[in-house]
Amino acid sequence: MATGARLSQRRCQPCSPPPLPSPSLPVPPSFVSAAPLTGMAAKRGTKTSMKNMEKELLCPVCQEMYKQPLVLPCTHNVCQACAREVLGQQGYIGHGGDPSSEPTSPASTPSTRSPRLSRRTLPKPDRLDRLLKSGFGTYPGRKRGALHPQTIIFPCPACQGDVELGERGLSGLFRNLTLERVVERYRQSVSVGGAILCQLCKPPPLEATKGCTECRATFCNECFKLFHPWGTQKAQHEPTLPTLSFRPKGLMCPDHKEEVTHYCKTCQRLVCQLCRVRRTHSGHKITPVLSAYQALKDKLTKSLAYILGNQDTVQTQICELEETIRHTEVSGQQAKEEVSQLVRGLGAMLEEKRASLLQAIEECQQERLSRLSAQIHEHQSLLDGSGLVGYAQEVLKETDQPCFVQAAKQLHNRIARATEALQTFRPAASSSFRHCQLDVGREMKLLTELNFLRVPEAPVIDTQRTFAYDQIFLCWRLPPHSPPAWHYTVEFRRTDVPAQPGPARWQRREEVRGTSALLENPDTGSVYVLRVRGCNKAGYGEYSEDVHLHTPPAPVLHFFLDGRWGASRERLAISKDQRAVRSIPGLPLLLAAERLLTGCHLSVDVVLGDVAVTQGRSYWACAVDPASYLVKVGVGLESKLQESFQGAPDVISPRYDPDSGHDSGAEDATVEALPPFAFLTIGMGKILLGSGASSNAGLTGRDGPAAGCTVPLPPRLGICLDYERGRVSFLDAVSFRGLLECPLDCSGPVCPAFCFIGGGAVQLQEPVGTKPERKVTIGGFAKLD
């Protein structure tokens, strides 16, 4: 009976609201078991570490501890109630999340819910009526039956960006259960010794001993038995330790309400089994959540271990930043004093100039006033009975004629001048001071544009005009709104040299005037990285982006075109500087094309270089017009070329191929003989990498394309001749990518050659440095003009 009486006294009233529990009294089992407190020192250390991370646990909206935080697509967190409040302020209705996420226990009354819910601002009545008239159950901007519903936009308070929540709004977001556990452990650490009270007892409530996840409430022993009677479904509820933060046992998919089991790497989102087979994730990289958990945990552990293992570095950097702050304060104060001094100097100069201008105006004013006063005095003497008029009247009374004549002569002159001044009256000085006006428009503009000096912005290197040939030519420009630069600094270094300890060593070219620079004598077959920065009175600006340039694989061979061997003056036009040639088809090619089906001969025009190579390695480059019909670029034995094209170059057998070095197929059996010619065939903007000719017999570069195909024509072609090895390589002169490698008979002098069939044009690469002397080769000997 005593027990029954005690139960009747402490029995709760389901209809009456329980007292509001303190949110700072939870004692979560996870925190107690994970990090037990042993001794006062451990308690103080745990408290300190937990208190230091308080700013990480504050909601960016309400600035309070997170309560049921949701993970936004931008990876930031926000309380569910705060998220609803933000969406309500944005005018969205019915997208505040799953109502079941709020407590539905017997203690879930308006007085026990979050205090933030009472601060929610609802839309204004007129706005609500307008939204409801646009379509009941819809959100702003969406009409009933719309094919493309509007995506809900949520303004993230942390990153100040707009994130898309999709059509479901907050219902499609996951709860951050880990953050909830951290918040609960933090609350327990800052209030050790507190107790969680039963939410169903009459006042004064007893200490809670159990919790129920299904009921989402805490109970004492008697209240738990009362609300979980035997023989009912509630009796199957599993009791837990008391807590005020009831969380689901695991993360559930917001779309299908199933437990998430996989992680989509493409979408970076947890998915369930049904989400995995949906079309939305088709073709995505999906892994089990265990693999994602282990990988992310390992990365986080390694990163955290690195940070904890470099605490001295962190402290050193903090000291450096603090020292930088002190220097910033001192430098800022000095800059303020300098600006104040300069402005005071400008003010003093303006004051001095103002005083001198006012003095000039004062002197001009006094001079005018004196002149006008004298004129007034003269006019006052003309008044009746005073001054000159009175004196003249008295003189007229004189009756002695000689005396009158003597006195009146001088008086008459004065009266005449006064009469003339009266008839032609004009003030002696102007009252206007227009000539003293100042034009300060230019000075005001200068004062308006008065600003701090800025360093030049990072230059932009012109990659179209920057290239490497016999020398490196670097060209750049400043951005449109960049301050001007007085001069530039060019830095360069090789990237293919063995790395040395310490920072990379750059070679510098100081005080470069203009927007281009020439780097002389670069190493062949190397890769250079270059950068530029500008300088003016404010100092040096930022560096430009690094540009990598490949230098030619061999020394550059300088030569001119010599059209005296095998060239037809009617069809070939060589430029005045002898560095370009154009083939003009004319009537002979048209006649040949008309008789082409009847086995006619087709003309081939050849242009040779005026320099022959007899040793070492040489490189040169040229540009072929993409509209050329058929052009062959290469090298050959000088004697064979002169032999073949010296006589009757317009009549050549159709079977003749300049690539093979012979005009019959009888010599194909001789495998040992090297071809005297090596040509690359170009036509209609394509390069033919054929394998039928002896010069092209399957000898492609290591990284080049396969034989028997066509590749696009690059802007410039490079030819590299290795005389000792008897090899010729054809390269893309821009990227130095290998196109073709051929054998060559180097038993005699070898010279460059260009063949034309039909219209075409070739331009030799201009040397970057000083132009060489023009040479002409005759019979294998070179002589100067």
UniProtKB/TrEMBL annotation:
Q: Which residues form the B box-type domain?
A: 248-289
The B30.2/SPRY domain covers 539-773
Q: Where is the COS domain?
A: 396-453
Keywords noted in UniProt: Cell projection, Coiled coil, Cytoplasm, Cytoskeleton, Metal-binding, Phosphoprotein, Repeat, Zinc, Zinc-finger
Where does this chain mainly localize?
Answer: other
A UniProt-annotated Pfam family: zf-B_box
A Gene Ontology BP annotation from the UniProt entry: neuron migration
Q: Where is the composition biased (Low complexity)?
A: 99-115
Query: Which portions of the chain have biased composition (kind: Pro residues)?
Result: 15-28
Name any GO cellular component annotation: axon cytoplasm
Signal peptide span: none
**Which superkingdom heads the taxonomic lineage of this protein's source?**
Eukaryota
Where does the record place the Fibronectin type-III domain?
455-554
Q: Where in the cell is it found?
A: Cell projection, Axon; Cytoplasm, Cytoskeleton
Membrane-traversing stretches: none
Task: Give the region (Disordered) as residue ranges.
Answer: 1-28, 93-125
For this protein, what is any one GO molecular function term?
Answer: zinc ion binding
UniProt subunit comment: Interacts with TUBB3 and TUBA4A.
Query: PANTHER family, per this entry?
Result: E3 UBIQUITIN-PROTEIN LIGASE TRIM36-RELATED, TRIPARTITE MOTIF-CONTAINING PROTEIN 46
Instruction: Return the similarity comment.
Output: Belongs to the TRIM/RBCC family.
Q: Could you tell me what this protein is called?
A: Tripartite motif-containing protein 46
**Native organism taxonomy:** Eukaryota, Metazoa, Chordata, Craniata, Vertebrata
Identify the coding gene: Trim46
